[in-house]
Amino acid sequence: MSDTDAQALRALTLATRTAVAILGPGDQAREVAQEVAIRVLERRTQLRDPDKFDAWVHRIALRETFRAQRGTRRRRAAEATLDDTALELPAPATDHAGQLDAAAASRLALQRLGERERMAMVLRYVHDLPDSQIAAVLDCRRGTVNSLISRARTRLRAMPDLERLTTAGEPR
């Protein structure tokens, strides 16, 4: 496998994990992941430090995924009628017992966070990155990463319907 093929595969893998975590499984997540892989291949010569490839791909994947998510919200809002509830966040999926599906609840929770908080949470809990790598992706200090994660967890704890998600794992 050539270096270019390996980079494309790595970019597609990272982008897919990010897109599915935020958008859910489906065509939109696959399209975003493919767009990210194409963008990475087209612009790989612009990357000055090859050691920062993953951070660079994460940044592109997060931006493209959030852009797609905003576009979906705008389309839904435009299609909604005045008495329609489509302007609200989508209802999370439930299983047979009526409990929140964890993946759907996670996506719902992420939609309620600020963009940088969402990025930090996805990088930590989906990609399992340490604070130093999250800081590199977000171009900030490690202390800022800790603040973003802490703030996001506090906001999640304030959401009673998502309480079990915030107690599932302890911060590192």
UniProtKB/TrEMBL annotation:
Residues 13-74 form the RNA polymerase sigma-70 region domain. Keywords: DNA-binding, Sigma factor, Transcription, Transcription regulation. Belongs to the sigma-70 factor family. ECF subfamily. One of its GO terms (biological process) is DNA-templated transcription initiation. This is Sigma-70 family RNA polymerase sigma factor. It comes from Solirubrobacter phytolaccae. It comes from the Bacteria. Residues 108-156 form the RNA polymerase sigma factor 70 region 4 type domain. GO terms for molecular function: DNA binding; sigma factor activity.
